[in-house]
# Entry
Amino acid sequence: MARELWEGNQAIAEAAVRIGLEAYFGYPITPQNEILEWLSRRMPELGRAFVQAEAELGAINMVYGAACTGARVMTSSSSPGISLMQEGLSYIAGTEIPVVLVNVMRGGPGLGNIAPSQGDYNQICKGGGHGDYHPIVLAPASVQEAVDLLPLAFDLAEKYLTIACLLLDGSIGQMMEPVELPPMREVKRREFPWATTGANGRQRHVLTSIYLEPNDEEQTNIRLLKRWQEVQEKEIRYKEYYLEDADVIVVGFGTAGRVALSAVRAAREQGIKVGLFRPVTVAPYPYARVAELASQAKTLLVVEMNSGQMLEDVRLAVNGRTPIEFYGRLGGVVPFPDEILAEIQRVARETPKMVADPAKVWLQRMVETTKK
Amino acid sequence: MATMTPENLVYERPLAFTDTPTHYCPGCTHGTAHRLVAEVLDEMNLTGRTIGVAPVGCAVFAYNYFQTDFVEAPHGRAPAMATGIKRCLPDRIVFTYQGDGDLASIGTGEIIHAAARGENITVIFINNANFGMTGGQMAPTTLPGQKTTSSPNGRDVELQGYPIRVAEMLSTLDGAGYVVRRSLHDPTNIRKAKKAIRTAFETQVRGLGFSLVELLSTCPSNWNLTPVESLTWLEEHMLPYYPLGDFKVAPSITAAKI
# Structure
């Protein structure tokens, strides 16, 4: 297929159509409206299900119902809307059915703003709804990568009977980039042995997330956890850049990782031995690989568009063996490559030192910079 | 035991029921409502192509009692789940079974918009004027002055507002096809209720849009009355506030002469 210029949200929506999306339910919220709008035209013209729900609560529960039939189903939203969907996501996780969620983050907390942010990493990666469950979370850094990860999201959701989330931000959702979309595939309804499609000629199927007997609920939790462990063993994905001889390793996901790559390239031109590690699956998190890199590097520099949410995972992986530095921008501010380059230069220049909380040191520095 | 002939058969378990005793309190009319739904599923031969959606509330375990496929929705969200199922399987029959806490309190958004969209589903709505499962708290349907565990001095409309008449409210929506209220307090009304449930499912089978049957029901345990006293209380207190009747019957449904 030829490379074409596509807006991120529209590219994701059209890719979903082409890989066999059977039903979409959503609610308008910036900066992901183009997904809903694109599908409001495409789905009906192909005879597929589309409903603009009355709220995100309705949308996620329509998704829940549709997923119970075994249909390939998706929804999309942004930060405040994802908050509203947490109830349904917890039920979906507890019912063990496949759902794909496109989560286009914006600045928060509260109503926040519509600028790109990574402030909802913890919410989705650590399971924002109630109970013990783990969605699979994929974090693209470009429109092409978003389009490429979408079929994987469906495959993983269906294989592990779980929620798979494409986690991006408003900049990837709304920028235009050359992208190669997948070819149009025929819709094939999968025959899941649990789907509620009418009990004609077979034992009835019941899909529920209630296990009144605590021992049954415990067994359900154990089943979910075993499946999650299998995901952790088999489905870790990441990208590495210039790591062979790197003394300083920048760690960043999504847009922050992409901006950091520009800074890393600029630093390399200046002779600084720096590389980039960009997790693609942020849940499951590539702890083992980060631990390996920590023994190679003199310092890790974590860069995020939040207050250091993924930093916690890096600290867990490094376990105090290597100094970690942090640089973040908050509330919808996207860092410029120059800012990250300056951080790389500073980290490369200074003697690495262990600190109890890298985010605290960063915040102090940031407050002082703002004063000037 | 003598062989049962159709002439002397007065009761049998509907085929749409599983062989499971219900968990409902003695004298509660949920059992009656369940049976009416099961009889209609039998008569219309729908069991094999029906998917039920259970609520959160007393009927949370409704899925244990029917031979149909079933899903269990989050509190109040049954109409949204039913929408998702029906849109993916338009040739199947999808019904929700919801109480007044589920439908008239936490789930008002979902039910209003399912009706407004003319979603081709059937809703069985149990109005027993309180939250049954959680121990008899005030519901949106609790009558003025009615004592509950969260309105111990009686519902004070100055502070707690007025009851919601769901059937009347939904009947104002153009998308609603068949919206009626019936009662389960005596045999005559139970027969009328069954006829309405049949009409509601016929409405869906014929693709004529959203159908809802509100059923006035008793809750002896939380009303602190005997089963018989509860039936009388329903008749004396609920009927005046919640008049029985057909609030919306779309012309297409009348024309279908169901």
Remarks:
- Chain B has one domain: 30-256.
- Chain B touches chain A at residues 47-51, 53-54, 60, 63, 66-74, 77, 80-89, 92, 109-110, 112-113, 117 (CB under 8 Å).
- The mean pLDDT of chain B is 96.
